[in-house]
Structures are given as structure tokens and as C-alpha cells.
């Protein structure tokens, strides 16, 4: 009530008892909200309709993948001597949370296997209602939770309540501007912690709407991380059964959701299965995480924060790329064709780098907003004067597509999502050229096919786009066969690569190889709060482009302001034993100056390696790094480390250009 009063004092009009039945969209933007008493014209709308948000979004073509599920709590009768000032306390192993309720105790439950509620449609007349509790299903969970507070067995039950709460596919909120409709914002799917997070999310959205971009990292919970297929009834039913229980599950670094799997399959998935891949979910796709040697069945392990049984397999895959040749399936990467007379001009305007140069060249770039902060991290390949291919990470598919479409305007340019039309098979390592040259008549020598070249080549019975680029820090190529030819290309690569010792390489090795080279990954070690210069990506910015680019003036001003005091640096532990994941605090001369955003294990460098954002009282320069005594806190122990602004592996880029 106090917030409502404060809002009214600022001129806000709150209309109660009037249902919002839809949102009017004109030319791809919000125009009005429809009610049973007429339309309300507006420039922005925020869909915070809770478990009804998905249904409301559907009416405007906005996908909001959330689902209501039964959520339970029990209130005991009076417990003599209960301290009513006790804080809320939780016991994840008992699936319970506890707090005083009057003179009794509330015992709330987040059971490991839940029951979705009204998958078809949430009744529009249901509000603050109750669901008949399923005593039989919940009895084992309730008994275990009550065992944690034995006195609860000795008193009666005042109330056993069941009501619906909405949950999302990855147990993160759904917040931000929808990719389908401009100025259509969402704040829903708070996974039963709306009271804890609602105020903060409201503040994030207010800043976002007023200033045009959020001022905190939203990459983990923005709406466009999700895929439209996650809204189907079958998907929501299967995934919600698991997601509610994740509230109290330990979020181990290698944990992957188990339900609603096997949906997004690479065109070469069957081949990866034959070669004993262990898969994890990658934005709805099945991604090969690591491979077991012949005769050893891939199996999940007991999750932990230490070295798991596949650590040595991972190390061997890593070394195969550094010393020989590895084959990696990256078909889940987001792929778009941008075509039209103005395609090059549009892409050059949204890209910080110069992308509309010669045909047959791939360019690494970022898309920035007007504040000079990163919106996307990707490559643009110019195929001809009116055709470009954009490749972004799996989690950027909806965001990159929406961002580009909104900046085309009246230009003669069209963007098509071709993610599923092409596989992506990466051939990487010192022997990659030798392998590919044995399969094609196209000259792949360094002079004829230099770094950043993109060209169609023959490979067996297929014609394939071949791009000489790497994300692993070695000589390498990315192949983009059409879906129907992908398995043929894959088989040819394996057959020709056998004498060279070609090895399948999974996502664990991708992470360790790219981290040794300090290659960035949007949504992990760089995000929407980072200036492209602070992220260490100034080399990919063309400030001298005649037509400029979105965010150019801000970036130029940042550069002119002098040395940066906030920078992303690479850190390497000097002790080979500990592992890093993310969130570890970084110390310089005993003072906390930042934290690790993402990390892996550097099998070549000989220790855990990560990228950390450092904020200092003085410019973060090579001298600042060299003069400091660096440590990283891992699970309460500080380990000596070294820090660098340049990659610790092949800083001169000699290997990738060899």
C-alpha cells in the first residue's frame, strides 16, 4: 500500500477491478492495452500478470514460457514456548522452509517432483484461491520436513494449504523487453520468491524503460534467453515437474536439467551418440559435453565441486586440439542470413567493427547500445554484396534476431533465422589444414586461404561454407554444411582424420581451450553492463568508420577519458590443484578488487584459469598487474595467482595464423 501511495504521489493512476484483456500492437510496437472498458493508449507495457502472463502474452504473439504448479505449506497448531522472533530457516535436504506463523510454525515445501497445475489454461477467475491438497502424494515430503523440527509431530495441524505458483524452464525469472514486440516488457515467473525479488526487479525494469537499457547484468534472466518451443504444453508439463524441486537442489557447476530433453538435435547427433558422447542441455539443444574412450559407457556422475570421473577424458580432448586435430559439433550456434541491397549498411551501422568490406571475409564484432554497452558478441561473414551470415552464441538467438530486426527500419534488408538449416562442425588444431586439404580441391594454404577467409569448398559430395576462424586458439576451420549433407561431411572427416588421430571434442574442452586464450563469451564473462573497451575488445572497434555505429560517441568519449580503472583480466592459479567456476573473489595486495566471472581448467597452462572483472582506484595497466601480489579465494582458501591483460596462451596469435 505504501508503494501504491508513493506512486500516486508521483502522478501514477492505478485502476483496480478492470481486466487487461490484451495489448494492441502496431508496426511491431506497443500501441495500447485493451480492457473491457476500452483501450488505454500507451508507449510501454509491462506484463506482470503472474501465472497468467503466458496467456496474456500469447494474445500479442509474445512467448513467455512459464507454468503454474502446486505449492504447499502446513501451519501447525500452537507450539508452546515457540520463539516468534525466529528468522526464516531452510533445510534443502528436507525440502522444507520454516518460520513462525502466529503461535505455530509454518512448514513450506519445495518437493523434488511436483505437480503442474492447469497446463491447458489458468482459469481467469481464479484469484487467491486454494487447490485441494494431495495428501497422499505429499505425505512423504511432509513427514521428512517435519522430522527436521520434531516438535511439529507433537501438535495438531491448523492448515495444510495448496496454491499455485509459476515456474520457468531454468528457474530464473522472465524479465525484460520481449524480442517479438518492441516496448512490451515482462516481469513474471519469479519461481515462488516474488516477495524477495519483486522490488529489485521493479527497480531494474524502471531503469530499463526510462534510460533504454538496464544498469545491471540481466543476461541470466532476460526473456529472450528462452526459446518459443519451451512454451508448448508438453514441454511445460515435463520441465515444471523438475524445476520446482530445483529451488532447493544444490546448483552444482556441471548440473544439467534432466526433463524435456532430446528436443533439439544436431544433424550429426546420431554420430556423436555412436562415439559415446555425454550430452548436456544447451539452450534446448543436446550438446556433447565430453566423450568416453571406446568400450566405456558415458554416464553421469555424482555431482560435486571437485574433479569428476570425466576430468581425464576432458584433458585428453583439450590436448588433442593443442597438439593434433579435434572435431567439435557446434550446430546449436545461432545463425542468421541478412540479405538485401542495404544489408551491408545495416550491419555496419549496428556493428562496432567494420563488417561491410571485401566479400569472403569473416569479422568478429560486438553490437552495442547507445550507452556503448554490449548487446551481442558475434561474427559477421560477408558472402557477397547483398548476403551476410551472422553467427552468435546459442543463448543469443532471440536477442540478436530481435535487435537486428528493430534496427533495419525502412532499409532494404531482411533477416532469416537459419540456425536449423545448417550444421556447424569445427575442425581445430595444428593438423586441421592437413585433414581438410585431403578432402577438398580448394587450396587451403596460408597464402591462398589466410585467417578470416570464408569460401565455399567441395568436400566429398557436398559443397560447404568453410570459414578459417577459431574460438580455441589454434589453426582451425568452421564448416557449415546444409542439414541434409551434414552427416556425409561428418563421416568423411572422421574417415580422413583417422590416420591423423582426429578426436571428438566436447563443450568442456571448448571452455578450457577458449579460456586459456582469454576469448570472451557473452552472458558468462562479459555482459550488458560492460563497455566494449573495459571488456578488452577495443581491437574489434572501428571508431573511424565514416557512417559511425550505434554507441560510437560513447565509446569514443570513454577512450578519450584516459586509462581504464575497470577492466576484464585473465587470472591463473599457480597451484594446479584447485578448480574455479565463477564468483571467486580476486585480491591484489590483500585487498578485494574484483571477482571471477567465468573459469575453467587450463590443461596446457597447468592450473585453473578464468576471466575476472577488476575495479581499481588507479588505472588497470600491465604495470598495475605486474606490481601486485594476486590471490583468488576458492572455497575459503586464498591461492596465489597471476593476472594478465593479454592472453596467457599464444599472446602473439602465431598459432592461429600459421
TrEMBL record:
Annotated Pfam families: DAO, FAO_M, GCV_T, GCV_T_C
A cellular component term, taken from the record's GO annotations? mitochondrion
Tell me which residues make up the FAD dependent oxidoreductase central domain: 212-263
Q: Where is the signal peptide?
A: none
Give start and end of each FAD dependent oxidoreductase domain: 2-208
Domain (Aminomethyltransferase C-terminal): residue spans on this chain: 566-650
Q: Cross-referenced Gene3D superfamilies, in alphabetical order?
A: Aminomethyltransferase beta-barrel domains, D-Amino Acid Oxidase, subunit A, domain 2, FAD/NAD(P)-binding domain, Probable tRNA modification gtpase trme, domain 1
The record's InterPro entries line, in alphabetical order, gives: FAD-dep_OxRdtase (IPR006076), FAD/NAD-bd_sf (IPR036188), FAO_M (IPR032503), GcvT/YgfZ/DmdA (IPR028896), GcvT/YgfZ_C (IPR029043), GcvT_C (IPR013977), GCVT_N (IPR006222), TrmE/GcvT-like (IPR027266)
Domain GCVT N-terminal stretches: 269-545
Return the similarity comment: Belongs to the GcvT family.
Task: Tell me which PANTHER family the record gives.
Answer: AMINOMETHYLTRANSFERASE (PTHR43757), PYRUVATE DEHYDROGENASE PHOSPHATASE REGULATORY SUBUNIT, MITOCHONDRIAL-LIKE (PTHR43757:SF15)
Q: What is this protein called?
A: Unannotated protein
**Which species is this UniProt entry from?**
freshwater metagenome
